[in-house]
User: Fold this.
Amino acid sequence: MPGYEDELAQIVADLNRAAQASRTPAVETHSTAGLDHVLTEAARRGASDILLIAGAPAGYRVNGHLLAASGAPLGPEDTRALLLPLLAPAQAQELQKNKSTDLCFTRPSIGRFRANVHYQRGTIAGTIRLLPEKVPTIESLHLPAALRRFAEARQGLFLVTGPTGCGKSSTLAALIDLINTNRRDHVVTIEDPVEFQHVNRTSVIEQIEVGHDTPDFANSIRSILRQTPDVILVGEMRDQETIATALTIAETGHLVLSTLHTNDTSQAVSRVLDSFPQGNQPQIRQQLSLALLGIAAQQLVPSADGHARYPAVEIMAATSGVRGLIRKGDDHQLYSAIATGRSAGMITMEQSLADLVRSGKITKDTAFAHCFRSEDLKRYLQE
Assistant:
């Protein structure tokens, strides 16, 4: 690639300069303070994310709202000095090649963090997610107890869907924690990057990081059965090969947990199918109808007092009726099956939002702002 070596050399030089700058005393402004100052301030505010973008002060997302730090806007050199010291040489190369790279890092006195470093308008920018020190539980995340059943299954595919930042990784971590507490299994996770670090209890857990321990999801999942796992977590179903392999593994006596980016559970079915050529979709429908355990779609909704967020969760369980709809291609009927399936542990997004309103956790206005079917929500609120 023309000019690639020159660009890489520039990044390496910037890394060296940034590392040197990070060793010098910082003044107390967000444009020149070290990254630790920014991380400490985020932790103090209870932020979930930090935005570091040239042309704006550091931004902190608190309970879903983006708040700007005081002080002057960051300049291009500020974002480089804050972010480049985080990168290992291989990550610097990935940043230069793909213009984006993901990583996790730790500050012993502050906590663990997940970061995405990327380019925007030709300058270095970054988004940093603060990770809880402890692996979350179903209870601490305020998730429905009905999700526990999916951590008890011995084989099949369970998916968590939702937009970026809705807590999918936290939900999967809570399910792995349940397995780690209650089962004697070999659990293998494939993540990009590893977010929650599990300590072996009754189970043995291996955590494989894409880019560090394996080249990519597809390469790792192809060989994973040689590691004799009982439970497999695939951080994200990103491509056709990963999805196809995960389905096959779920059919052959393994529990597979993974995520997708869709708004509701029926869209997740469509997303899996749309990953394959039209001619292959009947076979994939058959395979999915047999392998699927369930799908949970979630979003984080601001609390009534504005000081927290609660998960609204739609749950579709793979009952015989649901499997039949998937197999026959009647995806448009899945929502009705979920709405009438509460005795089987199912719940629609609108039913979940209505429950949160009735419990006083969120307001009606918030529920309507986050629902997909306002008429259904209105009806549930009147029941």
Notes: The domain at 4-131 is CATH 3.30.450.90 (Beta-Lactamase). The first helix runs from residue 4 to 22. Confidence is low (pLDDT under 50) at residues 18-33. Residues 247 and 288 are 7 Å apart (CA to CA).
